[in-house]
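DM from R.C. (forwarded with permission)

"hey, sorry to bug you on a friday — could you get me a structure for this? deadline for the figure draft is monday and I only need the backbone to look sensible"
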Amino acid sequence: MFKFTHTHWAPWTVADSNDKKRARLNIITDLLARIPYKEAPREKVHLPKRQAAGKYIEPVHEVDRVKEVF
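My reply, with the result:
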């Protein structure tokens, strides 16, 4: 199959997967290395003052939350 479907336009890349965790990390590393990366300009972050200890009030935001199963 590799002989007939491996082309310059759509090459096959094979990962040794005897150790699944290492294989996944190697694949992710390989994929990220293939993406051209250029430093993005960014503004300096200004953080608000911290609230007093023991008096933290969590802000209310309208967001979708992931269901906690575990």
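R.C.: lifesaver. The chain has a mean pLDDT of 85.
me: no worries. The two ends are 42 Å apart (CA to CA).
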